[in-house]
From TrEMBL:
The keyword Lyase applies. This is Fructose-bisphosphate aldolase. One of its GO terms (biological process) is glycolytic process. It holds the Pfam family Glycolytic. It catalyses: beta-D-fructose 1,6-bisphosphate = D-glyceraldehyde 3-phosphate + dihydroxyacetone phosphate. Keywords: Glycolysis, Lyase. PANTHER family: FRUCTOSE-BISPHOSPHATE ALDOLASE. Belongs to the class I fructose-bisphosphate aldolase family. Signal peptide: none annotated. GO terms for molecular function: fructose-bisphosphate aldolase activity. Its EC number is 4.1.2.13. InterPro entries: Aldolase_TIM, FBA_I. Pathway: Carbohydrate degradation; glycolysis; D-glyceraldehyde 3-phosphate and glycerone phosphate from D-glucose: step 4/4.
Length: 366
């Protein structure tokens, strides 16, 4: 490695950089996005309980198998985020889920955060844990077939939040996480999530999102993160869940792209939005509107939805084998709609009542 002046010592070889970029290229494919199937046992459990299903490993495995064995879902899904439990599980045929995904040309990734804890000295804000043994875990996940990782930091919007401390601390967590991932050959999905809790308007969400992005990319620069080998996962700019003012998809798309243009370096290849409790249809419409904004957008704008790809699927399944095919059909429909929105070519669809239902959960932990 060549010596450089100053205090910085390069840590990635050209080969490592190329490898990270090749993973990014496999994820950022036209008309495709990411399925976030990384709900914690508790969160997936609450969804199973709502269907009167036991929150058992058997049921969680069965549900995820439904998703990963949907015929041709790779036509609109290029990557899947797993949790550790699923990473270790196998399909009915004895094949590891990780291998089953890879065989279909879908890149497996893994959630590496271990939850949010309170940040003392703030008005109820938090920070994300999971850094301590991260290097070791990343090396193991890489060996086990994962090619990217995700760590989410959450910011709350209030009259006095997010605070400077919360913005700084969470950005630093993301910076160190991203650097450790890259050292271990995993593409980091960097996720600052400005949550939708609150009655703030679109302008306030835009401002906070711009701040969160500025802090995040300052930290990534401080940690010498190779931006071309990362992806950003963030919120679309929307009003708070309890905001009384309504906005059009075009206004939301415009605010989203303006915030991204102000805060995301051109070197970042792609932005994969979270759905944040939006209804399935709204999430798709806003992604489509963002892609239609007539401003220079030097990154791919895609999706990494959890709730907005799965809510109607789960409801249809109800834990019953006889509903499996219909549930998989709904999954394909959502994946296709979002694939179209990724291209800015979504033309609307006949939506079920479930698909327009808000999926918002207060202080969602994921
Ligand atoms: P939602 O799309 O349900 O917000 O979740 C995506 C995610 O992975 C949040 O970390």
């Amino acid at each position: 490695m060549a010596e450089v002046g100053g205090s910085y010592h390069p840590t990635l070889t050209k080969q490592q950089e190329d490898e990270l970029q090749s993973v990014v290229a496999k994820i950022l494919v036209s008309g495709k996005g990411i399925l976030a199937a990384d709900e914690t046992t508790e969160i997936l459990g609450s969804k199973l309980s709502a269907l009167n299903l036991e929150n058992s490993e058997v049921n969680r495995r069965k549900y995820r198998q439904l998703l990963f064995t949907t015929p041709n879902f790779g036509e609109n899904i290029s990557g899947v985020i797993l949790v550790e439990e699923t990473y270790n599980q196998k399909a009915n045929n004895g094949e590891r889920f990780v291998d089953l995904l890879r065989k279909q040309g879908i890149v497996p990734g893994i959630k590496v955060d271990t939850g949010i804890v309170p940040l003392p000295g703030t008005l109820g804000e938090g920070t994300t844990q999971g850094l301590d043994d991260l290097g070791k875990r990343c090396a193991e996940y890489k060996k086990g077939g994962c090619e990217f990782a995700k760590l989410r930091c959450a910011l709350t919007v209030g009259p006095h939040t997010p605070s400077h401390l919360a913005l700084l601390e969470n950005a630093h967590v993301l910076g160190r996480y991203a650097s450790v991932c890259q050292q271990n050959g995993l593409v980091p999905i960097v996720e600052p999530d400005v949550m939708r809790d609150g009655d703030h308007d679109l302008e306030r969400c835009q401002k906070v999102t711009e701040q969160a992005l500025a802090y995040t990319y300052k930290a990534l620069a401080d940690y010498h993160v190779f931006l071309e080998g990362t992806l950003l996962k963030t919120n679309m700019v929307t009003p708070g869940q309890n905001c009384s003012k309504k906005y059009t998809s075009e206004e939301i798309g415009h605010a989203t792209v303006v915030a991204l243009r102000r805060g995301v370096p051109v070197a970042v290849p792609g932005i994969v939005f979270l759905s944040g409790g939006l209804s399935e249809i709204d999430a798709t419409k806003y992604l489509n509107a963002s892609n239609q904004v007539k401003l220079l957008k030097p990154w791919v704008l895609s999706f990494s939805f959890g709730r907005a790809l799965q809510a109607t699927v789960l409801k249809e399944w109800q834990g019953k084998d006889e509903n499996l095919k219909k549930a998989q059909k709904l999954f394909l429909q959502r994946a296709k709609a979002n694939g179209d929105a990724q291209l800015g070519k979504y033309e609307g669809e006949e939506a079920s009542a479930a698909a327009i239902e808000s999926l918002f959960i207060t202080k969602y932990t994921y």
